[in-house]
């Protein structure tokens, strides 16, 4: 039994409850109410005074690197990192080695996760066999085995006809197609955003159209096929505008962006900082603003982390050889709070939508809610705590955070998944 | 001064210090013996991941004239393919007691990366599209020698601005001295936001008219395949310093080129022969400037140490 005292529950945008207690028995929320009787011998008592209690988070786009790249991360270390950040459901991308492009691989990920993960890991299957962009993978079998979406993330399906067929075919299995939008003819050789910083550093630029032209293409394909397209890690203003237009047209399109795209700009790479090398690249202040507006208006539905762990040796190299990606689980919530809520762009309740309701809806899950009778999946966050992102405090095997050295406000202190305490008062115990 | 990584981060005072010292070094170059003991006992290594006989020879001669022990390492194929990372190479160079490393690499930021991971001095001999600081310093030296000043001049840079580290270093260096810089080239080779740093001319005539200095850049003919330019012939006609364009250039305008020149593509042989042209002088001045930089990078009382 766990008793959370003096909790201020945030369940949704307009929900601001009074301080209350939450009693968790087994994996469920047994009772919510004032002054629930304490029984220190039978209960773990957590005092949440001055803190907020929210449903735990869901990430629809991350990389766990197992199998094939366990030196970067594995299902266990990645899940622990996710748990540390307040995520209790995560969807891992299929670009492993071998890739998750068949039912056996989907089964393998689910099996491994059951063995070693303290949280729920949901595999994303590939769109094409071997992620080669040539033949459709067995989408039906993968769905049967538990894949919740399909994506060739890391690569774009450049063949428009194949993408069209993927969309049509996915409809029979009611599974969203997650698109990594990148016209590789436009992005080839590029390292960072094409713009001011590429000009002053001499690093090769990736034009913003590399993303937005494919966003436009995929929207048009989804419009005609009436399939569900999900545009992941949106980074440009033009993409936001296109998605907005598509939604007005009634296209079945959803989208996410990542914490780094709504907080950092291309200037982070000045000084050749490879931790700020991500794909798509960090863009400009204007894009950051457009993405925040997009989130506000609901054009961008949710936040994903695109947690992309890499080994130190893959980042401490020449800029062009450096792997793209930043880890993201452990900073996601704090980044949203620091850059959006603190700056009065959002109400705290909006975060519940972006990290819980909407991502879960996209993959067909019902939201985590803090109500009597529901599963106890929640986090306790301290909105006042300021902390510096430091390598030594990172739980993930990899330390390649674009936020290293940044001071963030707010912290995920306690995490409970299905009634189990995964993290308590800042200490991970899973 | 521990490293010379670029002119972007160098102050006006540092640049003047280098140019003044280069003037002294040039008198040494003019003497018969061409030998000073300034770098005696120092180990200077050139590590070139790209071919450049010119720049490498210039650095090596500069080091030798100052009595340094010089070693050159050329990396024909990327050592990464052989399994050795650049970081490994840096650690090896450190173990080999390198004092100064002169590095050229096709990737922007590599000298910065090395400098962050080593104890010796690093001199950037050209990194990707980023900087070629000694080239810009020798250009500035040559301008000051000819025109008596590097301030408040009208300077045009013509050609492949996008890929040119020479253009960037010149823009960063010359901008610190209140010069008016104009760039011109095919639109495909003009980088975004360059208008924050230089005026973008709309024609070659406009670019060169009334200028004190015209810096002509080398064009990489492979760029044709990537769709940046169409053909040598067309480039020469519309962007080359040919006889037609010379009508817009006065007798006192300096014509510079970092070399090696593609004759009949960027510039005609006739224009190269004109007294306006300083192309050969630039090569000589390059040694003097590199001597000055080597000297400053090995002095403890230098700018940074
Ligand atoms: Zn991606």
TrEMBL record, chain A:
<comment type="pathway">
    <text>Pyrimidine metabolism; UMP biosynthesis via de novo pathway; (S)-dihydroorotate from bicarbonate: step 3/3.</text>
</comment>
<keyword id="KW-0862">Zinc</keyword>
<dbReference type="InterPro" id="IPR050138">
    <property type="entry name" value="DHOase/Allantoinase_Hydrolase"/>
</dbReference>
<keyword id="KW-0479">Metal-binding</keyword>
<feature type="binding site">
    <location>
        <position position="306"/>
    </location>
    <ligand>
        <name>Zn(2+) 1</name>
    </ligand>
</feature>
<feature type="active site">
    <location>
        <position position="306"/>
    </location>
</feature>
<dbReference type="GO" id="GO:0006145">
    <property type="term" value="P:purine nucleobase catabolic process"/>
</dbReference>
<dbReference type="GO" id="GO:0004038">
    <property type="term" value="F:allantoinase activity"/>
</dbReference>
<feature type="binding site">
    <location>
        <begin position="63"/>
        <end position="65"/>
    </location>
    <ligand>
        <name>substrate</name>
    </ligand>
</feature>
<dbReference type="GO" id="GO:0008270">
    <property type="term" value="F:zinc ion binding"/>
</dbReference>
<dbReference type="GO" id="GO:0004151">
    <property type="term" value="F:dihydroorotase activity"/>
</dbReference>
<dbReference type="GO" id="GO:0005737">
    <property type="term" value="C:cytoplasm"/>
</dbReference>
<comment type="similarity">
    <text>Belongs to the metallo-dependent hydrolases superfamily. DHOase family. Class I DHOase subfamily.</text>
</comment>
<dbReference type="InterPro" id="IPR032466">
    <property type="entry name" value="Metal_Hydrolase"/>
</dbReference>
<dbReference type="InterPro" id="IPR004722">
    <property type="entry name" value="DHOase"/>
</dbReference>
<protein>
    <recommendedName>
        <fullName>Dihydroorotase</fullName>
        <ecNumber>3.5.2.3</ecNumber>
    </recommendedName>
</protein>
<feature type="binding site">
    <location>
        <position position="279"/>
    </location>
    <ligand>
        <name>substrate</name>
    </ligand>
</feature>
<keyword id="KW-0665">Pyrimidine biosynthesis</keyword>
<feature type="binding site">
    <location>
        <position position="61"/>
    </location>
    <ligand>
        <name>Zn(2+) 1</name>
    </ligand>
</feature>
<dbReference type="Pfam" id="PF12890">
    <property type="entry name" value="DHOase"/>
</dbReference>
<feature type="binding site">
    <location>
        <position position="180"/>
    </location>
    <ligand>
        <name>Zn(2+) 2</name>
    </ligand>
</feature>
<feature type="binding site">
    <location>
        <position position="153"/>
    </location>
    <ligand>
        <name>Zn(2+) 1</name>
    </ligand>
</feature>
From TrEMBL, chain B:
<dbReference type="InterPro" id="IPR036901">
    <property type="entry name" value="Asp/Orn_carbamoylTrfase_sf"/>
</dbReference>
<feature type="binding site">
    <location>
        <position position="260"/>
    </location>
    <ligand>
        <name>carbamoyl phosphate</name>
    </ligand>
</feature>
<dbReference type="GO" id="GO:0044205">
    <property type="term" value="P:'de novo' UMP biosynthetic process"/>
</dbReference>
<feature type="binding site">
    <location>
        <position position="82"/>
    </location>
    <ligand>
        <name>L-aspartate</name>
    </ligand>
</feature>
<feature type="binding site">
    <location>
        <position position="104"/>
    </location>
    <ligand>
        <name>carbamoyl phosphate</name>
    </ligand>
</feature>
<feature type="binding site">
    <location>
        <position position="132"/>
    </location>
    <ligand>
        <name>carbamoyl phosphate</name>
    </ligand>
</feature>
<dbReference type="GO" id="GO:0005829">
    <property type="term" value="C:cytosol"/>
</dbReference>
<dbReference type="InterPro" id="IPR006130">
    <property type="entry name" value="Asp/Orn_carbamoylTrfase"/>
</dbReference>
<dbReference type="InterPro" id="IPR006131">
    <property type="entry name" value="Asp_carbamoyltransf_Asp/Orn-bd"/>
</dbReference>
<dbReference type="Pfam" id="PF02729">
    <property type="entry name" value="OTCace_N"/>
</dbReference>
<feature type="binding site">
    <location>
        <position position="54"/>
    </location>
    <ligand>
        <name>carbamoyl phosphate</name>
    </ligand>
</feature>
<comment type="similarity">
    <text>Belongs to the aspartate/ornithine carbamoyltransferase superfamily. ATCase family.</text>
</comment>
<dbReference type="GO" id="GO:0004070">
    <property type="term" value="F:aspartate carbamoyltransferase activity"/>
</dbReference>
<feature type="binding site">
    <location>
        <position position="135"/>
    </location>
    <ligand>
        <name>carbamoyl phosphate</name>
    </ligand>
</feature>
<feature type="binding site">
    <location>
        <position position="55"/>
    </location>
    <ligand>
        <name>carbamoyl phosphate</name>
    </ligand>
</feature>
<dbReference type="InterPro" id="IPR006132">
    <property type="entry name" value="Asp/Orn_carbamoyltranf_P-bd"/>
</dbReference>
<feature type="domain" description="Aspartate/ornithine carbamoyltransferase carbamoyl-P binding">
    <location>
        <begin position="2"/>
        <end position="145"/>
    </location>
</feature>
<comment type="function">
    <text>Catalyzes the condensation of carbamoyl phosphate and aspartate to form carbamoyl aspartate and inorganic phosphate, the committed step in the de novo pyrimidine nucleotide biosynthesis pathway.</text>
</comment>
<keyword id="KW-0808">Transferase</keyword>
<keyword id="KW-0665">Pyrimidine biosynthesis</keyword>
<dbReference type="Pfam" id="PF00185">
    <property type="entry name" value="OTCace"/>
</dbReference>
<comment type="subunit">
    <text>Heterododecamer (2C3:3R2) of six catalytic PyrB chains organized as two trimers (C3), and six regulatory PyrI chains organized as three dimers (R2).</text>
</comment>
């Amino acid at each position: 039994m766990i008793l959370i005292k003096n909790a201020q529950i945030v369940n949704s945008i307009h929900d601001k409850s009074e301080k209350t207690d939450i009693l968790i028995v087994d994996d469920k929320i047994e009772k919510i109410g004032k002054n629930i009787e304490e029984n220190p011998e039978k209960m773990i008592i957590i005092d949440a005074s001055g803190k907020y209690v929210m449903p735990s988070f869901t990430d629809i786009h991350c990389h766990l690197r197992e199998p094939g790249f366990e030196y970067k991360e594995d299902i266990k270390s990645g899940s622990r990192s996710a748990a540390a950040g307040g995520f209790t459901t995560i969807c891992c991308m299929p670009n492993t080695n071998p890739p998750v492009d068949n039912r056996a691989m989907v089964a393998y990920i689910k099996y491994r996760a059951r063995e070693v993960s303290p949280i729920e890991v949901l595999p994303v299957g590939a769109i094409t066999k071997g992620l080669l962009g040539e033949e459709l993978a067995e989408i039906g079998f993968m769905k049967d085995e538990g894949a919740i979406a399909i994506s060739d993330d890391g690569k774009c399906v450049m063949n428009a006809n194949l993408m069209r067929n993927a969309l049509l075919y996915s409809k029979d299995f009611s599974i969203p197609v997650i698109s990594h939008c990148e016209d590789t003819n436009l992005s080839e050789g590029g390292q960072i955003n094409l713009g001011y910083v590429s000009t002053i550093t001499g690093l090769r630029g990736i034009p913003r159209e590399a993303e937005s032209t494919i966003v436009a293409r995929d929207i048009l394909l989804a419009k005609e096929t009436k399939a569900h397209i999900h545009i992941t890690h949106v980074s440009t203003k033009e993409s936001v505008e296109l998605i907005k237009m598509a939604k007005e047209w009634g296209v079945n399109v959803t989208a996410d962006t990542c914490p780094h795209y709504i907080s950092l700009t291309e200037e982070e790479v000045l000084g050749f900082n490879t931790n700020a090398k991500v794909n798509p690249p960090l863009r400009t202040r204007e894009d950051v603003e457009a993405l925040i507006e997009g989130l506000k208006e609901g054009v961008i539905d949710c936040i994903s982390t695109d947690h992309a762990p890499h080994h130190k040796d893959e980042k401490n190299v020449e800029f062009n050889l450096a792997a793209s990606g930043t880890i993201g689980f452990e900073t996601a919530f704090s980044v949203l709070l620091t850059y959006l809520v603190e700056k009065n762009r959002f109400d705290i309740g909006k975060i519940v939508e972006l990290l819980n309701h909407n991502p879960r809806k996209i993959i067909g899950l019902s939201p985590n809610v803090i109500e009597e009778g529901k599963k106890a999946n929640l986090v306790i966050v301290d909105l006042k705590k300021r902390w510096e992102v430091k390598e030594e405090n990172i739980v993930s095997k990899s330390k390649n955070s674009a936020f290293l050295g940044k001071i963030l406000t707010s912290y995920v202190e306690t995490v409970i998944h299905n009634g189990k305490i995964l993290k308590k008062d800042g200490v991970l115990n899973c | 001064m521990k490293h010379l990584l670029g002119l972007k981060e160098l102050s006006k005072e540092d640049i003047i210090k280098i140019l003044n010292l280069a003037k002294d070094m040039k008198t040494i170059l003019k003497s018969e013996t061409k030998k000073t003991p300034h770098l005696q006992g120092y180990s200077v290594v050139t590590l070139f991941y790209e071919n450049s006989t010119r720049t490498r020879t210039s650095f090596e001669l500069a080091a030798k004239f100052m009595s340094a022990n010089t070693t050159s390492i050329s990396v024909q194929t990327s050592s990464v393919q052989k399994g050795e990372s650049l970081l490994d190479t840096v650690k090896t160079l450190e173990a080999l007691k390198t004092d100064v490393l002169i590095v050229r690499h096709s990737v922007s930021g590599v000298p910065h990366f090395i400098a962050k991971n080593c104890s010796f001095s690093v001199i950037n001999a050209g990194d990707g599209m980023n900087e070629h600081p000694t080239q810009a310093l020798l250009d500035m030296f040559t301008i000051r020698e000819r025109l008596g000043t590097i301030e408040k001049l009208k300077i045009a840079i013509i050609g492949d601005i996008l890929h040119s580290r020479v253009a960037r270093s010149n823009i960063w260096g010359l901008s610190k001295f209140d010069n008016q810089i104009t760039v011109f080239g095919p639109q495909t080779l003009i980088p975004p936001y360059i208008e924050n740093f230089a005026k973008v001319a709309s024609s070659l005539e406009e670019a060169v008219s009334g200028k004190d200095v015209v810096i002509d850049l080398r064009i990489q003919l492979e760029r044709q395949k990537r769709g940046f330019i169409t053909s040598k012939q067309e480039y020469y006609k519309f962007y080359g310093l040919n006889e037609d364009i010379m009508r817009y250039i006065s007798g006192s305008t300096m014509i510079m080129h970092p070399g090696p020149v593609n004759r009949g593509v960027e510039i005609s042989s006739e224009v190269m022969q004109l007294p306006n042209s300083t192309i050969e002088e630039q090569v000589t001045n390059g040694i003097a400037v590199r001597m000055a930089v080597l000297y400053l990078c090995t002095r403890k009382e230098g700018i940074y140490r």
